[in-house]
Amino acid sequence: MGKPIIAGAAAVFALVSLTLGAADPPGIKFEDLAAKAGIRVRHHTRQFKGATGDVLHMFTSGGAAASAGDYDNDGFDDLFVTNSDEGTESHLYHNNGNLTFTDVTAKAGVGGGNDPKSIVADALWFDYDNDGWRDLMLIRFGTPVLYHNEKNGTFKDVSSTSGLNRFANTIAAMAFDYDNDGRLDVLFGNYFKPMNLLDLPDPHVLPNDLDNAINGGGVTLWHNLGNGKFEDVTDKAGFGKHTGWTLDVGHGDFDNDGDQDVYLACDYGTDRYFVNNGNGTFTDMTEKALGGFDTKKGMNVEVGDYDNDGRLDVYVTNITDEYMKECNMLWHNNGDGTFTDLSRETGTCETLWGWAAKFGDYDNDGLLDLFVVNGLRSAGPDNYIPVLVEMITRPGVDFTDVRNWPKIGTMTWSGYQKKKFYRNIDGHVFKEMSAAAGVDNDKDGRGLAVADFDNDGRLDFVQSNADQEPFLYHNITTGAGHWIELKLVGSKSNRDAIGARATLKTADRTILREVDGGNGYAGQSTARLHFGLGVQTAVQSIEIRWPSGAVQRLTAPIDRVTTVREAASTNSR
Amino acid sequence: MKPAAARVLGAAGSAGLLILALGAALSVRAQSPAESDVAKLEAALTAAPNDLKAGNDYRMAVIASAHGDKNTAKYDHAIAVFEKLVAENPNMSNLHLNHGFAIVDKIPAAGTITQVILANSALGSFTKSIELKPTWIAYYTRGNSYLFWPRIFMRTKYGIADLEEAMKMQKADQKRSYHVRTYVSLGDGYWKMDDLAKATATWKEGLEQFPDSPALKDRLAKQGDDLQKLIDDSYDPSKRVDTSLQDLWANQ
Fold it and tell me: Which one of A183, A347, A511, B43 is separated from A314 by 20 to 30 angstroms, measured CA to CA?
């Protein structure tokens, strides 16, 4: 509203040209190339010692994350895949541009983090110092590790000078510029309260209630001071009262006012929705916006405009299985500050024990499809649920005491679950087609990193799995539509352009995308904005609204990756 | 066909119940009673704890006053009232029954894991009622409650045993309109145990006795996935089950 418009100024270069016919309905199809690509390396969850080790291992059976990011600015998204057991290494894979990757962990110096008192749980690419090179943060049960990108394929650990020194059992993180000052801040989602599970001083560390827990780790917000240091502003920003079991964090400009709002997915109790007040603070609007407080097991926050109505919606996975039937939540943004859950109506309600879910226009038809991973623990033939319920229904049992929970041993708990791939049919209904798409694996999925790894205009993705090898699903859809990908580079705004919004118009529709800084559980997708155009062979307009407030209009060629730089002379708010 | 994995019976089991139905008691739920009315009914119950109707009327008023399923405090208060009365009057079978129903009444308002805890707790109250006085309603109630538990907990067989006992009792009694419920539930129990022949036979026998029963007609008209959906929906703990007992005295 009333913001200056900067026309043109788009530096355009084509990386790959691949024009695809789109006359026939596409058959979405993927092939797993993990082994061939050189990334089929098993993840290991952390093993705990002592009498409570079995239960703590069960409660922390995550940590398998995949994050896509072009760390060397060669135009191809690279990949970082975490590991979690003590002494195991995470892996940085350099994208060779031909659907193979080279493990450059040793050279880069980013394999560590799993020390005796810390567990790597997630990873995040973001250019915290705006030098044009994406840095890497390891999210841990512990303190985070911040690696500065030295621009030569190596990274330098700058954690000790970053100010990020507060212990937390962090399981999710996102980078975003919550105050639009041009620097990327970080929001951590913390699962357990800040007590080191690897040196447990008190066994009362588990949820105090399995539907309404309030003894979790909440979130911590760190403001980027611009000198390589971060400052904890959790309380000041209005997040201090949240003490839930945060499992994922997500952001987007849900109210279209130019700043980034926050959605928190929380296990064992209600999710939270915080509206950005535009002055560095947030207001918890959960009750008004979501119609109350849920009791579900929120696992994932994914943001996207699935119905192309110009407003960002939210997809949250929960648990729907034989023994509990929560249903996921597809929060349709009503545009008036409220959301309505349309998961049942859209057919995206039941995905078993859900974890990460990612939107993506996998057939380039202009509509966001959805892939959901699931499965907690695939092990022996015995089922843990009856054993667990015996404990849960015991009168007066203290859930917080880890010693009261039965050991899981070799038992299976919501394991061997088929993944769910939903094709968006018309913006209102999705059709599950994971088997036909070739992605109905039954591994214990955790994270997703969506990216066009071979720059062919079709979105691929990596699925990370707990205690198992990952998948690299290469998109081989035939008959996919035309496409445009935009790589946005901020100048006044943060260099990664996180929070920037692009609105693309074709003859038959308007599509909105925002650059996100790590939405979705245990994963980070490409920072590029991907638009499927269907049969359209031209775009009418593209409007970029930068976090600085500047608005830029341009056009771009189809079937290309286009880099758009924020004009240096933007007038911002 | 109904593969085990597809037989999602719903959250960890609600001890949902049943009875009534057919509309008559819904009038009490159609309007929200004043707090004073609820208090009066609570006082009436306190004065006569083993009065099945007094307990039922109080519970129905609580449900109505809760305005749906978000005000768990109302349910918690009612449960506390019954708990206190049970502690003071441990040998009153009807009181235990209503106590169990009060717990069931909260289930749709609770989270999925709390539902399990409540359902299990309600079963304890129903069992106590049976131990004190083995009535048709107590057997039917507990048997039907077992059917809400997902198959993984292997409790359906206990439900069938209770429902068979209830069936014996009703066959020895004069025919009452609410007896149709036993045919429905017992057939459902057999179906859940993959004994379709026995399920069908039970539903058919019921239909001979109660030829106007929509529930029995529906079951006998459906097959495969359609039948599974019908039964799954019938035992969905997220849906409020009518626990009014009004039919009991309306059909004496």
Answer: A183
From the candidates A322, A353, A374, A412, which should be mutated to test the interface with B, based on the most B CB atoms within 10 A? Answer: A322
**Which pLDDT score is estimated for B31?**
57
pLDDT at B24 > cutoff 70: no
Q: Which residue of B has its CA nearest to A387?
A: B153
- The pTM of the full predicted model, rounded to 2 decimals, is 0.91
**Closest residue to B110, CB basis, from A211, A269, A322:** A211
CA–CA separation, B174 and B75 (whole Å): 36
Chain B residue with minimum CA distance to A386: B153
DSSP codes joined into one string, A55-104: HHHHHT-----EEEE-TT-SSS-EEEE---STTPPPEEEEE-SSS-EEE-
Q: Are strands A510-514 and A460-465 parallel, antiparallel or unpaired?
A: unpaired
Tally Cβ neighbours within 10 Å of residue A255.
18
Residue A346: predicted pLDDT: 98
Q: Which tokens hold the place of B217?
A: 């007609």
Calculate mean pLDDT across residues A360-380: 98
Tokens of A181: 């000052």
Chain B residues with CB-CB distance to A319 below 8 A: 112
Q: Are strands A551-554 and A5-7 parallel, antiparallel or unpaired?
A: parallel
- CB burial of A97-123 (b: ≥16 within 10 Å; e: otherwise) equals eebebebbbeebbbbbbbeeebbbbbb
Taking only the tens place, the pLDDT of each residue in B42-73 is 999 999 999 999 999 999 999 999 876 667 89
List, in sequence order, the alpha helices (H) in A306-420: 343-346, 384-392
Give the DSSP H/E element, type plus range, for residue B84.
Answer: helix B72-88
Q: Tokens for A311? A: 């407003």
Name beta bridge partners: A475.
A30
Place of tokens 């000052």: A181
SS3 A170: strand
CA-wise closest residue to A160 among A177, A150, A147, A151: A147
- Residue in A with minimal Cα distance to B4: A322
pLDDT of residue B216: 98
Predicted local confidence at residue B30, as pLDDT: 45
Of A425, A544, A454, give the one whose Cα is nearest residue A492: A544
Q: How far apart are the first and last CA of chain B?
A: 41
Q: How many CB pairs under 8 A join A and B?
A: 69
Q: What is the pLDDT of residue B67?
A: 78
Give pLDDT, residue A572: 33
Residues in chain B: 252
Helix (H) or strand (E) holding A35: helix A34-37
Find the mean pLDDT for residues A19-44. Answer: 82
Side chain identity, residue A357: A
Nearest C-alpha in B relative to A294: B111
Q: Are the beta carbons of A325 and B153 separated by less than 8 Å?
A: no
Q: Cα-flanking dihedrals φ and ψ of residue A418, to 5°?
A: -75, 135
Could you tell me which residues of chain B have a Cβ less than 8 Å from any Cβ in chain A?
5, 7-13, 70, 110-114, 116-117, 120-121, 150-154, 236-238
Most confident of A122-126, B18-22, B234-238: A122-126
Residue given tokens 């009694």 in the structure block: B173
Q: Of A211, A325, A386, which is closest to B153 when you measure between CB atoms?
A: A386
Q: What number is the ipTM of this complex? A: 0.86
Are A386 and B154 in contact (CB < 8 Å)? yes
